[in-house]
């Protein structure tokens, strides 16, 4: 500080900024540069082809199928995950017996929080292997074993094009609910009890309290959750790679852009084309994030 505030601040921020430029912005810039070449990953030099890779992308049926799958996932996964997390968080925080003018959570709320959060301590690969057993297409699978008790025929949850993507989305929802339950529970705990007491004195029921008090005051938290879930869906390569048949099958029914990038880079050695797909995915993620923030923006509620 003897040399002034600016040198002091710059001294602390300089190293993080340099690291960010080298390890984050640098790879992004390199990906943009490779996207303009026909590099196959095995040569020291590559020829520039301009926007040819991007032209090919928009003529690629599998790429459009991947984008369509992303669209379905963006509609279903955030909506269902947030709805379930809000429902369970409200049960655990405000749906118990009323005590002294305020509501408490259900008995054993702490235990239920641990149970719901448990999937978060598992890696995506472990979750995928676990649900391979759950979704097995014969009676040794967990779900088909249950269906067999009722005399139903085994279902190929991951091999039938009509339901394979929904089966994978079910795993995404199952693995994500616990984290957002804890997030929403923390938000609900910060809401002043006086608001609930006033609503109770006015004769409001729990449903009315949820939609009139809890949900509006959790709006910013829900907005953040929606953005994170949207980014997670667009980056859902790992789970699709583990669970899907034939890397995005059957017949591309579960493919995503990340899967197309991986296949073109490491199966077909088209690193330039794969980088172009990555660049398109980058702009899709940024657009979805900006659109979500724009549509959900409102004035900060104060209490």
What does this structure look like?
The protein is mainly α and 303 residues long. It has 13 helices and 2 strands; from the N terminus they run αααββαααααααααα. Strands 1-2 form a two-stranded antiparallel ribbon. A hairpin with a 2-residue loop joins strand 1 and strand 2 (102-103). The model has no long low-confidence stretch (mean pLDDT 84).
Low-confidence stretches: none
Strand order of the largest sheet: 1-2
Write down the overall geometry. globular
- Strand fraction equals under 5%
Give, in order, the helices and strands: HHHEEHHHHHHHHHH
What structural class results from the helix and strand content?
mainly alpha
- The residue fraction in helices comes out at 55-70%
The first-to-last residue Cα distance is 39 Å
- Biggest beta-sheet profile: 2 strands, antiparallel
Total beta strands: 2
Q: What is the tally of helical segments?
A: 13
* Structural Rg: 24 Å
Mean pLDDT: 84
């Amino acid at each position: 500080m003897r040399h002034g505030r600016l040198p002091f601040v710059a001294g602390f921020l300089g190293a993080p900024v340099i690291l960010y430029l080298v390890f984050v912005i640098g790879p992004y810039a390199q990906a943009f540069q490779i996207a303009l070449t026909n590099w196959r990953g095995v040569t020291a030099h590559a020829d520039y082809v301009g926007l040819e890779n991007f032209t090919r992308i928009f003529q690629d049926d599998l790429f459009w199928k991947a984008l369509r799958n992303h669209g379905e996932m963006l509609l279903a996964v955030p909506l269902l995950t947030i709805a379930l997390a809000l429902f369970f968080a409200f049960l655990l925080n405000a749906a118990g017996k009323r005590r002294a003018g305020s509501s408490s959570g259900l008995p054993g709320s702490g235990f239920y929080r641990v149970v719901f959060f448990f999937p978060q301590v598992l890696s995506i690969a472990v979750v995928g292997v676990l649900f391979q057993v759950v979704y097995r297409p014969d009676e040794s699978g967990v779900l088909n074993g249950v269906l067999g008790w009722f005399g139903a025929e085994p279902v190929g949850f991951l091999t039938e094009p009509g339901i394979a993507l929904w089966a994978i989305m079910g795993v995404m929802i199952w693995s994500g609910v616990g984290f957002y339950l804890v997030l929403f529970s923390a938000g609900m705990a910060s809401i002043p009890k006086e608001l609930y007491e006033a609503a109770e004195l006015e004769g409001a029921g729990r449903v009315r309290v949820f939609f009139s008090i809890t949900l509006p005051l959790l709006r910013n938290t829900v907005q953040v959750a929606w953005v994170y879930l949207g980014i997670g869906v667009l980056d859902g390569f790992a789970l699709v790679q583990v669970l899907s048949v034939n890397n995005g099958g059957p017949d591309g029914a579960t493919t995503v852009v990340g899967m197309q990038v991986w296949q073109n880079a490491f199966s077909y050695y088209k690193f330039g084309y794969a980088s172009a797909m990555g660049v398109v995915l980058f702009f899709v993620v940024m657009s979805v994030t900006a659109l979500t923030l724009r549509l959900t923006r409102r004035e900060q509620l104060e209490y």
